[in-house]
Amino acid sequence: MDKIWLNGALLPVGKARIDPADRGFLLGDGLFETMAAQDGAVPELHRHYARLANGAAVLRIPVPLTLPQLDTAARSLLEANGLTEAAIRLTLTRGPGPRGLAPIASPTPTLLITAATLPPPGGPLRLITASIRRDETSPLSRIKTLNYLPGVLARIEAAEQGADDALLLNHQGFVAETSAATLFVHLGGTWFTPPVADGALPGILRATLLEAGRVREARLTPAQLLTAEAIFAGNALSLRSVIALDGHPIPQTHSAALS
Question: Residues 107, 61: contact at Cβ < 8 Å?
Answer without folding.
Answer: yes
